[in-house]
Amino acid sequence: MKRSFTKICGMLALLMMTAVPLNAEVKTGDRAPDFALAGSDGKVHKLSDYKGKVVIVAWFPKAFTGG
Length: 67
Prior knowledge:
Layout: H1 2-18, E1 36-38, E2 44-46
Antiparallel strand pairs: 1-2
């Protein structure tokens, strides 16, 4: 449990450092802003590392949580 909490805190901190400002609106057809996310493999993946490749980002909330 403590390990999961640490990972979640790390991911949130990373997102806060790399996230687009909340007032920036991304519309259909816009280029995605560069961002970084921690993967389930323990590595940090940046969108820019996959330039020229198809990227699909899937987000699954933890089961049986309110969100």
